[in-house]
């Protein structure tokens, strides 16, 4: 691969961008990642975009020119920290909470700036990132898979997954009916305040981050930090590990970061989410409130049932559901969402089915 300096000299790298990934904080620190790249100039999707147009945008995402070994400065509430990008262009930040700072809103802002000069006449390269900060009225957290949990992708069928990934866009990818309304209800909980944090953990690569964020925005799915996976050999060598190891590591990182709240875990039966969540129950006893698994793979019924029984012995229930309403009705029966929200989920599910 051509080195960055050569790319600059040949005029192949004309502008630089900082790609921020939504982070989260507790009473001790905030945590987030950024990536420094050649500016891909992808732009937002349009509903009328065709397959070839979508493919060209996706190609840009996966052919990103990473900028290694450069300094990025982050400023949060007056505190500064500088991190150096690794060989894949990533930089990781753990910024201590400034003394006396108390969040008054769920989302705080971090200012970002590239310190090093990569190309002549570069100018200032800046960005900002959003950080989820918990307030006092958290009831529980929600951790959800994405592929075949929120949106059908055919993740267990390679060609179908590649086709939907590379030739679709945020408008053409349609979530399972009722998902957005259900996640909004969980976000509000019983106190009707949008404060319960949502985290999305997936084995999709970081290259799809902006695509997935746009997808959530288009379909009004509540925003939250995305914990994705690198397709290079850095960032903890995640590509060398399995789907299981990656997701387990990320889920347990969230559990450790927010150590004083229980979690509802949502996944599907197709890619070993039940096995991953079983291990979480064992590693964090008493912390899992409920597990909802979307049934997408018939040949794993017995395996999933065996895991459900083992979870039950450990004091945690797992519900295998065919659609969103099953999970929503159960959540209402447990007092985790409001009566009106169940009605809204039902209406939303019908509208989604009609429009889909």
UniProtKB/TrEMBL annotation:
Ranges for domain Phosphatidate phosphatase APP1 catalytic: 140-295
PANTHER family, A to Z: PHOSPHATIDATE PHOSPHATASE APP1
Name this polypeptide is given: App1 family protein
Annotated source species: Fontibacter flavus
């Amino acid at each position: 691969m051509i080195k960055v300096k050569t790319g600059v000299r040949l005029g192949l790298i004309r502008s630089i961008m900082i790609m921020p990934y939504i982070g989260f904080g507790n009473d001790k620190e905030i945590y987030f990642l950024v990536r420094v790249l050649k500016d891909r100039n992808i732009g937002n999707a349009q509903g009328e975009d065709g397959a070839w147009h979508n493919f060209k945008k996706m190609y840009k995402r996966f052919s990103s020119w990473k900028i290694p070994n450069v300094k990025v400065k982050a400023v949060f509430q007056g505190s500064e920290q500088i991190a150096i990008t690794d060989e894949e262009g990533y930089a990781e930040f753990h910024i201590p909470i400034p003394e006396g700072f108390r969040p008054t809103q769920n989302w705080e802002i971090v200012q970002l700036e590239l310190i090093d000069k990569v190309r002549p006449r570069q100018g200032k390269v800046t960005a900002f990132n959003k950080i989820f900060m918990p307030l006092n009225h958290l009831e529980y957290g929600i951790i959800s898979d994405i592929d075949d949990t929120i949106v059908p992708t055919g993740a267990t069928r390679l060609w179908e997954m590649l086709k939907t990934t590379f030739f679709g866009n945020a408008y053409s990818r349609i979530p399972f009916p009722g998902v957005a309304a259900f996640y909004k209800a969980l976000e509000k909980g019983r106190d009707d305040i949008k404060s319960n944090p949502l985290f999305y953990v997936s084995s999709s690569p970081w290259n799809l981050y902006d695509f997935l964020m746009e997808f959530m925005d288009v379909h009004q799915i509540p925003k939250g930090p995305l914990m994705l996976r690198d397709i290079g050999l850095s960032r903890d060598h995640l590509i060398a590990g399995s789907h299981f190891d990656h997701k387990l590591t990320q889920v347990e990182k969230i559990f450790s970061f927010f150590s004083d709240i229980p979690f509802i875990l949502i996944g599907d039966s197709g890619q070993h989410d039940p096995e991953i969540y079983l291990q979480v129950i064992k590693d964090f006893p008493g912390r899992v409130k409920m597990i909802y698994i979307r049934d997408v793979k018939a040949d794993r019924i017995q395996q999933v049932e065996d895991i459900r029984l083992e979870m039950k012995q450990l004091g945690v229930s797992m519900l295998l559901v065919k659609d969103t309403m099953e999970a929503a009705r159960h959540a209402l029966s447990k007092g985790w969402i409001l009566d009106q929200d169940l009605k809204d989920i039902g209406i939303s599910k019908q509208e989604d089915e009609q429009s889909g």
